[in-house]
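User: Quick sanity check before I run a bigger batch. Here is a single chain. Can you write out its predicted 3D structure?
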Amino acid sequence: MNTYIKGSYTNFLKINTPQMIEVDRLMTEEYHIELIQMMENAGRCLAILVKERFLDGDVSGKSIVVLAGTGGNGGGALVAARRLHNWGAKVRVFTTAPYERFTPIPAHQYTILKRMGVSIESETGMDKLIKPDAILDGIIGYSLKGNPRSSAATMIHWANNQNTPIVALDTPSGLDLNRGTLYEPAIRALATLTLAMPKMGLFASDAKSVVGELYVGDISVPPELYQEESLGLEPTNIFRYSDIIRIN
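Assistant: Done. Predicted structure follows.
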């Protein structure tokens, strides 16, 4: 059974990057829902979407490449890698930097994968890969500032040249979630799973060529949080039927 449903994005509130940063702050400081919990939900939703939408509900024996940065976006992708490995996929992870440069919570996810024996490499090993069945993009999230560079740019170019489904977490790497500015290079995703609420930048005219199918994943933000004075929002309960909602 599919774990996502189709709706219409015109029915959903769209938020900007400063508002999403405030959501993250309120989650941890006021509601005591920690980053590791949000990251786990994000990665679980990403793994489910890839399995159900692009791999016919069964990842056993499938080759999946996970591209991960050192921050929260990369951490969510590493959670998805763990889930997919547990379900029988042949997962290989490539990171933009070594373990020492990861922020603490994503580093925790990295350590779990290493203990499980999942392959984690730098981008220099990607050229030897045979085309995978799917690619997960967790390179850069809403912290993007200008054109992706160095290993991040190398990963993006490689992924775009594979002619295989790419599923982006929160945003295609290279797309600014706030203004919708498309930097170079940028992931050309077949689907994007954004988190909590749709972000304004995903609906910009330039974004249409890279976002693909757009989904929203539930990271367990309490409805009351959106009504806090610093946000003043009144969203609908969009996840009442499913953890993953398709909105275009």
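The helical segments are 17-29, 35-54, 72-86, 104-116, 150-160, 208-211, 223-226.

User: Great, the batch can go ahead then.
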